[in-house]
Specification:
Blueprint: H1 4-27, E1 29-35, E2 39-41, E3 45-54, E4 60-61, E5 71-73, E6 79-87, E7 90-103, E8 107-111, E9 115-118, E10 121-124, E11 128-133, H2 140-145, E12 149-155, E13 166-175, E14 178-185, E15 194-198, E16 207-212, E17 215-229, E18 233-237, E19 241-248, E20 262-268, E21 272-276, E22 286-301, E23 304-306, E24 310-321, E25 337-351, E26 354-367, E27 371-375, E28 378-384, E29 389-395, E30 398-403, H3 407-416, H4 441-469, H5 471-492, H6 496-514, H7 524-534, H8 537-552, H9 561-581
Parallel strand pairs: 2-11, 22-28, 23-30
Antiparallel strand pairs: 1-3, 3-7, 4-9, 5-7, 6-7, 8-11, 9-10, 12-13, 13-17, 14-19, 15-17, 16-17, 18-21, 19-20, 22-24, 24-26, 25-26, 27-30, 28-29
Helix pairs in contact: 3-9, 4-5, 5-6, 5-9, 6-8, 6-9, 7-8, 8-9
C-alpha cells in the first residue's frame, strides 16, 4: 500500500530543489557593452552592442537609449541576435542588441552607462570613452593612393648597436572590404648584414582596427624575426615577400566562379634602412660579444684531481639578447695546465618577442705536474642596450689541486706479488691399512660416476641451449673473454693512442655485455651510471677515472709505454672486480 504522506513529502522536496536551482541559475547573468570603434571620423557610423548572457533568462527590458554627446542615434536600425551554447555542461543563452550611431562633432566623449532589466533586476554597463576626429585632417592624396591590402616590415628600433636584437614584425594591412583567407611566406628571404632568427608565435593571428591617413584598416601581425646587425653603418633590410588568398566582400561574384570569388595576391614589403652604431671601446674586461641582459658564472669540476686526469672549467651565460652570437671567454691558465677539446652547448628559447636561454662553454684541462694551481680572477663584460653602456661581471679565481695517482707506483708491484708460503715441518710416513673395500672412497666414486656424468651432460646441454637462445646470457658469459682479448691487443700495441683505445673498448664492451646494454653508442657517463646502479659507487668512480683517462690520454703529459702497461694491469683487475659485482 502506498503511503500518501511520504510521497507528498518527496514530491515537495523535488520541487523545492528545482526551484532553488532555477533561482541560482537565474542569478548567473552577465551584461556588457562595447563600441565597434573608439576613434571615429565625423560622419562615420559606429555600433554600440549590448550583450546579455545567462543560464536562465525569462525577461529582458531593453534600455532607453539616452542622448549621447558626439553621436546621433539611428533609431530604426536596431538589430537583435540570440545564441545558445553549453558552458561547463550547462546551457547558456546570449542575447545581443546592436544600436547604430553617426559621429557628429569632433572631440573626446564618453558613452554613458546603461541600465538593463533582466528578470526584474537591474544591471549597469560601464561607460566607454571615444574620440570623434575631424575628416578635414585626412590627406586625400595619400588616402587615395593606399591599396586595399599591403604588407610592411616594422622594426622595433631603427638605430641599434652592432649585435643588438631588432624585432622585425611582418604586418599585413587590409581594408574592411577585404577578407583574408590564408597567407604563405615566400621561402629564401635573406637579410644581408644581419644574423636572422625566426621567433615562435604560438597565438593565433588576430586583426585589430587602426586608422591610416584617415582610412580604416585591419592590422594583423603575421610573423616575427629577430635580426642582429653584424656591422655598423647604414644597413638595408631587403623586402620580404608573401602571397595571400583574399576575397572582396562587396564585389559581385561571377556566375562562373562557383561561389568562390577568391584571388591570389603577391605582396612584398618596402626596404627598411637601419642606422647601426658601433660599440664603444672597452678596457679592463673581456668582451664576449654579448648585447642584451645576461648573467655569467664559472665553475671547475673536480677541484682535486690526479695528474693526467681531465678537469672541466665550465662557463654559463644565461639571459636574453644575442645568445646565438656569444663567444667563449678567454682565460689565462697556468702553464702547467694544458687545454684540450673546448666545447659549447646551448638551450635557446625563441618566443615572447625575445631570444632567451643559456649557453655553456667547457674547457678540458689536464695537469702535467702535481701541485696547487690558481686560475686568476677575470672580468667579463656585455653591452646593455637599454642603458647604453657596458656591464662588467667579475668571475672569482678558481683553485685546482693536482696529485699523483698512487696506482701508477704500486700497481705493478701488487699485480706481480705471488702468494706463496714456504712448506715447513717433518715428513710423515703412512702405514698401509687393511680396511674393507666399502671403506674405500674411490669405490664409491666409481659407483657414482655414471650419475655424475649424466648430470654433467644435462648441465652442458642446458648451458648450450641457453647460450643459443638467451642473447643476454650469452653476452654475459663471453664478456670477460672478449675483454681479455682487447687487453691483450692493448698490451701488444706500440702506439699509446691505439693501446688506450683497446683499454677503453675492453672496459666499455665488458660493462655493456654484462648489463645487456647496446654494443655501441654508450657514452662514458651512461656506462658509469650503469655500473653505479648495478654495483657500487666505488667501482663506478674507478671506471670513470680509467675511461676518462683513455679519452684524454693522447693529450696527457708524461704518457709512456710503461704507464700504459700499468693501466692494462689495472684494467684487468677492474674487470675481475666488475665480474664479481655485476
Amino acid at each position: 500500500m502506498t503511503r500518501t504522506g511520504k510521497l507528498n513529502w518527496l514530491t515537495g522536496l523535488i520541487f523545492s530543489l528545482f526551484f532553488v536551482s532555477s533561482t541560482v541559475f537565474g542569478q548567473d547573468v552577465s551584461v556588457s557593452s562595447s563600441l565597434s570603434e573608439t576613434n571615429i571620423y565625423s560622419g562615420e557610423s559606429v555600433t554600440m552592442t549590448i550583450s546579455v548572457s545567462g543560464q536562465s533568462i525569462n525577461n529582458i527590458e531593453r534600455p532607453q537609449m539616452p542622448p549621447v554627446d558626439g553621436l546621433r542615434w539611428l533609431s530604426g536600425s536596431t538589430s537583435t541576435s540570440q545564441r545558445i551554447e553549453l558552458i561547463n555542461g550547462r546551457p547558456t543563452v546570449s542575447y545581443s542588441y546592436g544600436y547604430s550611431f553617426i559621429a557628429q562633432r569632433p572631440g573626446t566623449y564618453t558613452f554613458p552607462e546603461l541600465t538593463i532589466g533582466v528578470d526584474g533586476k537591474g544591471y549597469t554597463t560601464k561607460p566607454i570613452s571615444f574620440n570623434v576626429l575631424d575628416p578635414g585632417s585626412i590627406d586625400n592624396d595619400q588616402s587615395a593612393r593606399l591599396p586595399d591590402i599591403y604588407v610592411r616590415l616594422e622594426p622595433s628600433t631603427t638605430q641599434p648597436v652592432v649585435g643588438e636584437m631588432v624585432i622585425a614584425d611582418i604586418v599585413l594591412y587590409f581594408k574592411n572590404t577585404v577578407e583574408v583567407r590564408s597567407y604563405q611566406p615566400t621561402p629564401g628571404w635573406k637579410a644581408e648584414g644581419f644574423w636572422k632568427e625566426i621567433l615562435e608565435n604560438r597565438l593565433q593571428t588576430k586583426a585589430t582596427s587602426t586608422l591610416i591617413n584617415g582610412v580604416r584598416f585591419q592590422r594583423a601581425r603575421l610573423l616575427q624575426y629577430a635580426l642582429f646587425p653584424t656591422k655598423s653603418g647604414e644597413l638595408t633590410i631587403s623586402p620580404f615577400e608573401l602571397s595571400v588568398q583574399i576575397q572582396q566582400r562587396n564585389r559581385r561574384r561571377d556566375i562562373f566562379s562557383f561561389g568562390l570569388g577568391q584571388e591570389r595576391k603577391d605582396l612584398q614589403t618596402l626596404p627598411v634602412t637601419l642606422t647601426v652604431r658601433s660599440l664603444p671601446d672597452i678596457d679592463n674586461a673581456t668582451f664576449t660579444g654579448g648585447v642584451g641582459d645576461f648573467k655569467i658564472t664559472r665553475t671547475i669540476e673536480p677541484a682535486e684531481a690526479f695528474v693526467g686526469e681531465s678537469i672541466e672549467v665550465t662557463t654559463t651565460i644565461s639571459g636574453s639578447g644575442n645568445l646565438p652570437l656569444l663567444n667563449k671567454p678567454i682565460y689565462e691558465y697556468p702553464e702547467t695546465l694544458e687545454i684540450y677539446n673546448p666545447s659549447e652547448s646551448s638551450n635557446i628559447n625563441r618566443n615572447n618577442r625575445e631570444i632567451s636561454g643559456s649557453k655553456t662553454f667547457t674547457d678540458i684541462l689536464i695537469a702535467r705536474n702535481a701541485g696547487e694551481f690558481t686560475i686568476p680572477e677575470t672580468n667579463v663584460a656585455f653591452y646593455d642596450p637599454d642603458n647604453d653602456r657596458y656591464r662588467t661581471i667579475s668571475l672569482p679565481a678558481l683553485t685546482l689541486k693536482a696529485t699523483r695517482d698512487p696506482r701508477s707506483v704500486n700497481g705493478s708491484e701488487d699485480m706481480l706479488r705471488l702468494n706463496v708460503e714456504p712448506i715447513t715441518g717433518l715428513a710423515q710416513w703412512i702405514t698401509p691399512d687393511n680396511a674393507p673395500l666399502t671403506s674405500r672412497s674411490w669405490i664409491w666414486g666409481l659407483l657414482l660416476s655414471p650419475v655424475v656424468i649424466l648430470g654433467l651432460a644435462f648441465w652442458v646441454k642446458s648451458y648450450r641451449d641457453k647460450m643459443n637462445t638467451d642473447t643476454a646470457f650469452a653476452r654475459a658469459q663471453k664478456a670477460k673473454k672478449l675483454a681479455t682479448e682487447e687487453l691483450e691487443k692493448a698490451a701488444a700495441s706500440t702506439e699509446l693512442k691505439n693501446g688506450y683505445y683497446h683499454i677503453y673498448r675492453a672496459i666499455s664492451l665488458f660493462i655493456a655485455d654484462k648489463l645487456d646494454l647496446p654494443k655501441a653508442g654508450n657514452t662514458t657517463s651512461e656506462l658509469v651510471q650503469a655500473v653505479e646502479d648495478s654495483s657500487s659507487s666505488k667501482l663506478a668512480i674507478e671506471v670513470k677515472r680509467l675511461l676518462t683517462k683513455c679519452d684524454t690520454i693522447a693529450y696527457a703529459p708524461g704518457a709512456s709505454q710503461a704507464g700504459m702497461a700499468r693501466d692494462v694491469e689495472f684494467a684487468q683487475t677492474l674487470i675481475n672486480e666488475l665480474n664479481k659485482a655485476l
